[in-house]
Fold:
Amino acid sequence: MSERISFYIDGYNLYNGIRDAFGKKWLWLDLGGLCADIAKPGQVIEKIHYCTAQMKSNPGSRSRQDAYLGALQSVPNYRRHLGRFQDNPRFCRCGHLVGRYSEKQTDTRVASLMVADAMANRTDVLALIGGDEDFVPPIQTIRQECPDKVVVVCLPPNRKCGKLTKINRKPSVDISEQMLRSNQLPKTVRVKGKDFSRPTEWA
Structure:
């Protein structure tokens, strides 16, 4: 019998890790291909949960993100979960009030999905793509309440987290540049009669 594996992706953690390490050239990432590379032989991908928030402050960034989110609809077993950006204005040193946005509901959505799927026996292996210490509590909960479930931590580039890998007690997967390079979406992806093209800034 095949082993079920589901993926839980912190979209901004992955995005920022790729940008910090390699710039913009690997951002047009095929999540289906990446997850297939991470899965072991005999494992069947049940779901790919992609958790992110839609940009508000920069029209150019929002346009590029919309193109990518549209293209990702072509990925089998893909599910998108959107949080939000909250406006948190701050005073800068010059005394002026400046806009600042904080991402909300992404980490908690990832954590909720992982715990819910483990408790409901919707998967056998839970693969977390993210390197944030906030994911320690859900991993602890899964280990305590569902000891038969396996959690795999997959660390984006430049996103190392010793506490996260230590609490899981399993070898982590480091997402390499080769994995990113070999899993890029086609330049133009057609979904439901609409074309989504890779942004020129990401070429």
User: Anything to note?
Assistant: The CA atoms of residues 79 and 152 lie 19 Å apart. The chain has a mean pLDDT of 89. The domain at 3-202 is CATH 3.40.50.1010 (Rossmann fold). Helices lie at 11-22, 31-38, 59-71, 106-119, 136-145, 162-168, 177-181.
